[in-house]
Amino acid sequence: MSENYKDIITILGHEIPLGTSKEINFNIAKLHTSTKIDVPVIIERSKKPGPTILFTAGIHGDEINGVDIVRQLISRKINKPKRGTIICMPIINIFGFLNASRDFPDGRDLNRVFPGSANGSLASRVAYRLVKEVIPNVDLVVDFHTGGASRYNAAQIRIVKNQPKLDKLAAVFGAPFVLYSNHISKSFRNACFQLGKPILLFEGGKSSFIDNHISDVGLEGVKRVLAHFQMLDKNFEASPIETPSIYIDSSKWLRAKRSGMFKSSVEINTKIKVGSILGQITDPYGKIHHTVKSNANGYIINVNEAVLVYQGDALFHIATDVIK
After folding, report:
1. CA triple 116-183-142, angle to 5 deg
2. Which element (helix H / strand E) includes 261?
3. In sequence order, which ranges of 204-277 are alpha helices (DSSP H)?
4. Radius of gyration over alpha carbons of the chain, in Å?
5. Cross-strand bridge partners of residue 55
6. How far apart are CA 34 and CA 43, in angstroms?
7. How far is it, in rounded angstroms, from Cα 187 to Cα 282?
8. Quick check: pTM over 0.85?
9. CA separation for the pair 178, 140 (Å, rounded)
10. Residue 24 in contact with residue 14, Cβ under 8 Å?
11. Out of 22, 42, 288, 295, which residue is the most buried by the measure of CB atoms under 10 Å away?
């Protein structure tokens, strides 16, 4: 990873020299009452030059687990680098966070409007300023997400395939799984990649929920990445990776064949085979008892924790093509 080293960096109109701690308010809009809505950007620069790493969360406002990970980076002072610069944006979609919603007030998914427009919708304007005034300063982005709604994701890093640098960084992070997935048009990940900025997308847990294990996996991964670049402060130690990441080349969803009350009988990360019993779907009257069985070999990387499901709902995400 090349180092975008500068004695002074300019973010959102603020000049920030080496050895500076600064919190900038990213003013994105006003409420109908003319009250300003600000997104805090926390910047820590060592006196020693080095890489600049950006940690982001809350692009989807209801994905609280990622917010918790970046919050802990700040509260524990892990974000104070031995060298280089660490930028933290714990909540990008502050509107969604306040309203426990995935989207912006204009109904748009912020993660589908990048690189944005200076004169576009509210979400598009936020994306534009992020891409134009923050991203050019960084060397690496780590973006934290969770599963949507009731779908609980195993801790995983998502990267595009055939990028050796990303493979190496994913291995350094050390999440249980690394999922190769194509870039989605107009996503934040795609916009960073188009600008030549390496990005690791972390997925773990589910929306509107904080799982301490997922937070711990994220924090330990961050410490390993910082240690890799000699940025981790001497007060912290990166834990060794107990089990190397499992790389996933392809996956498939197992969907409900019936509507009813759903109970999973397998835990996340479980290795399964064709015919493995994964759960049951029943009805309130005791007439239906449908056993959900696996139709593939692989690992469970997502479980739908909804109590009620409809026919066709995604129940399990199965990693089917695994690269050791």
Report:
1. 80
2. strand 260-264
3. 212-228
4. 21
5. 88, 142
6. 27
7. 38
8. yes
9. 17
10. yes
11. 42
Q: Taking Cα atoms as reference points, which of 187, 168, 47, 216 lies closest to residue 112?
A: 187
Tens digit of pLDDT for each residue in 120-148? 999 999 999 999 999 999 999 999 999 99
The pair of three-digit structure tokens given for residue 62, joined into one six-digit string: 């209801």
Helix (H/G/I), strand (E/B), else coil: 125: helix
Q: Which amino acid, residue 288?
A: I
Q: Which domains does the chain have, with CATH numbers?
A: 8-228 (3.40.630.10), 252-323 (2.40.50.100)
Amino acid at 312: G
For 13: left if phi > 0, alpha if psi spans -120 to 50, otherwise beta; the answer is left
- The DSSP code sequence of 136-193 is GG-SEEEEEEEESTTEEEEEEEEE-SS-HHHHHHHHHHT-SEEEE-PPPTT-HHHHHH
How big is the chain, counted in residues? 324
Please give the structure tokens belonging to residue 102: 């995935």
pLDDT tens-place string over residues 183-194: 999 999 999 999
